[in-house]
Design brief:
Blueprint (H helix, E strand, L loop, with lengths): L5 H14 L1 H21 L4 H6 L4 H28 L3 H33 L24 H6 L6 H7 L6 H15 L4 H27 L1 H16 L2 H33 L3 H18 L2 H15 L4 H14 L2 H17 L6 H17 L7 H11 L7 H37 L13
Helix pairs in contact: 2-10, 2-12, 4-8, 4-9, 4-10, 4-13, 4-14, 5-11, 5-14, 5-15, 5-16, 5-18, 7-8, 8-14, 10-12, 11-15, 11-18, 12-13, 12-18, 13-14, 13-18, 14-18, 15-16, 15-17, 15-18, 16-17
This protein binds aspartic acid.
The site of aspartic acid (ASP) has 16 residues, from helix 18.
C-alpha cells in the first residue's frame, strides 16, 4: 500500500534530483567516456557497438531533444519579441546581439590564427594519412548571393517541417523575429489571442523539455560511450598537434576572453554562470549539436541563471543557429593547417579572407554534428587550397566537434547573460531577482 505522504516524498526526491542534475550529468559524461574508452581498449569494433544496440539510448535522447526544438523555438522567439515591449527595445537587443556575436566570433578566429602560426601544426604532416573526402562535403562553395538568399524563408511552414537536419532553422528564426516584432506593434485587443496561443505553446514545450532534461545523465552516458568506443583517442596520435591547437584556441576563448567580457561588460560572475549553464554545456559536449541542445540552453538560462525571458528567447535561438565562436575558430585553423601541410604560403590578404570567410561560414554552418566540414570546403576553395586536405582532419573531427559545440553554446549564454546584466544595471527594478548577475 502506498503511504499518504508518498507523493510528497516522491516530489521532494524529484526536486533533489533536479537540484543535483549538473552533478548527475557530469557523472554521465565521465562514466560514459571511461566506459567507451574501456571498450575501445578491449578491441570492440564500431560495427559491434552498432550491433549491440549501444547507440539506441543516446539516439533516443537526441531525437527527443530534436522533437522539442522547432515548436519550442518558434514559441520562444514570438513570445520574446512580442513581450519585449516597444520596437526600440527590440532594436537595441537585436543590434547588441549582432555586434556581440560578430565581434566575439572574429576575436575567436583571431586567436585561432595566432595559435596556428605559433604552433605550426601542419608542418611535416604525412599527407598519405588523408582519408577520402565524402562527396557531400566536397562542394565547390556557395556565393555571397546564395548565402543572403538562404536567410529569407520562402516557406516558413516547410522550413519548420524540415526540422534541424537541412540547416533551414535560421530562415525560420528570422521569420519568427519578424512575426513577433510586427505582432508587438498591434493593438492589445488584436494581439492578445496570438500572445495567449504562443505563450501556452511555450509553456507546454518547456514542460516537455523538462521531462527530456531529466533523462540527460543517461542520454549523455550512452552518447559518450559510443563516441569513445568508436573512435578512442587514436586520431590524436596522427594529427595531435592540430587537435592541440584547436583545443588551446577554444580554451583561451572560453576560459579567458568570454569570462573577461562577462565580468567587464555585464558584471556577471563567469563561475556562477558556468555552474548554472552546466547541464546545457555538458549536453552540447555530448551531442555535438547546438540546436539539439537549445531546449536545455533555454531552460538553464531562464530557470537557473535568471536571464529574463525576453532576452533569452531572442538571443539564444539566434545564437544557436548563427553564433558559433568555436566553429569559426576550427574552420580557420583547419584552413591554415591544410595550407601548412601542403606547403602552400598564404599571403596576409588571403589570411584576411580566411578570417572573414570563417566568420561568415560559421553563421551559415548548420548547428548539427560535423556540419563544419562542409563549410571548411567552402573556405578552402575560396582561397585556392586543395579540398583533399579535409581528408587529413576527418578522423579528429568528431572529437573536436564536442569541444567546439560546447564553446558555441557558452558564447550564446555569455551574450544573453551580459545583456541581462547590463539591462539590470540600467533598470534595476525591471528585472526580477537574478542569481547570476552580481549585485
Ligand atoms: N556541431 C557544431 C554545432 O552544432 C557545428 C559544427 O561546428 O560542426 O554547433
Amino acid at each position: 500500500m502506498v503511504s499518504e505522504n508518498a507523493p510528497a516524498s516522491g516530489r521532494s526526491r524529484l526536486g533533489a534530483y533536479r537540484r543535483a542534475l549538473p552533478w548527475w550529468v557530469l557523472a554521465g559524461v565521465g562514466l560514459g567516456a571511461a566506459t567507451g574508452l574501456g571498450l575501445h581498449a578491449a578491441g570492440v569494433r564500431p560495427e559491434e557497438v552498432d550491433r549491440w544496440g549501444l547507440g539506441v539510448p543516446g539516439d533516443l535522447f537526441l531525437r527527443a531533444l530534436q522533437m522539442v526544438v522547432v515548436p519550442l523555438v518558434v514559441a520562444a522567439i514570438v513570445t520574446g519579441m512580442s513581450g519585449a515591449g516597444d520596437l526600440r527595445r527590440i532594436g537595441r537587443l537585436g543590434l547588441w546581439t549582432a555586434v556581440f556575436y560578430v565581434g566575439t566570433t572574429a576575436l575567436s578566429v583571431l586567436q585561432g590564427l595566432l595559435l596556428v602560426h605559433l604552433i605550426q601544426p601542419g608542418r611535416g604532416v604525412d599527407l598519405s594519412l588523408a582519408g577520402p573526402v565524402p562527396d557531400d562535403i566536397a562542394v565547390q562553395g556557395i556565393s555571397f548571393g546564395d548565402f543572403m538568399l538562404g536567410l529569407v524563408s520562402q516557406n516558413p511552414v516547410g522550413d519548420a517541417a524540415a526540422g534541424l537536419a537541412e540547416g533551414r532553422l535560421l530562415p525560420l528564426l528570422l521569420f519568427c523575429v519578424l512575426f513577433g516584432g510586427v505582432l508587438s506593434t498591434l493593438p492589445e485587443k488584436t494581439r492578445a489571442p496570438m500572445d495567449g496561443l504562443f505563450s501556452a505553446l511555450y509553456e507546454v514545450m518547456m514542460r516537455v523539455t523538462d521531462l527530456v532534461v531529466l533523462c540527460t545523465p543517461v542520454g549523455v552516458f550512452f552518447l559518450l560511450l559510443c563516441t569513445f568506443a568508436r573512435h578512442g583517442t587514436d586520431p590524436f596520435a596522427s594529427i595531435g598537434l592540430f587537435g592541440l591547437t584547436v583545443v588551446l584556441g577554444l580554451a583561451l576563448h572560453a576560459l579567458v576572453v568570454l569570462p573577461l567580457l562577462l565580468k567587464l561588460l555585464g558584471g556577471v560572475s563567469p563561475g556562477r554562470l558556468a555552474r548554472a549553464m552546466s547541464p546545457a554545456l555538458l549536453t552540447a559536449f555530448s551531442t555535438s549539436s547546438s540546436s539539439a541542445t537549445l531546449p536545455l540552453t533555454l531552460e538553464c538560462a531562464t530557470e537557473r541563471a535568471g536571464v529574463p525571458r525576453h532576452v533569452a528567447h531572442f538571443v539564444l535561438p539566434v545564437g544557436a543557429t548563427a553564433n558559433m565562436d568555436g566553429t569559426a575558430l576550427y574552420e580557420a585553423v583547419a584552413a591554415l593547417f591544410v595550407a601548412q601541410a601542403y606547403g602552400i604560403h598564404l599571403e596576409p590578404s588571403q589570411q584576411l579572407t580566411v578570417l572573414v570567410l570563417a566568420v561568415l561560414a560559421s553563421i551559415g554552418t548548420a548547428a548539427i554534428p560535423s556540419a563544419s566540414l562542409v563549410m571548411i570546403a567552402v573556405v578552402l576553395s575560396a582561397v585556392g587550397l586543395p579540398l583533399e586536405g579535409i581528408g587529413l582532419i576527418l578522423a579528429l573531427d568528431r572529437l573536436l566537434d564536442m569541444a567546439r559545440t560546447t564553446v558555441n553554446v557558452w558564447g550564446d549564454a555569455s551574450c544573453a547573460a551580459i545583456y541581462a546584466g547590463r539591462e539590470r544595471r540600467r533598470t534595476p527594478d525591471a528585472v526580477g531577482p537574478d542569481p547570476v548577475v552580481d549585485r
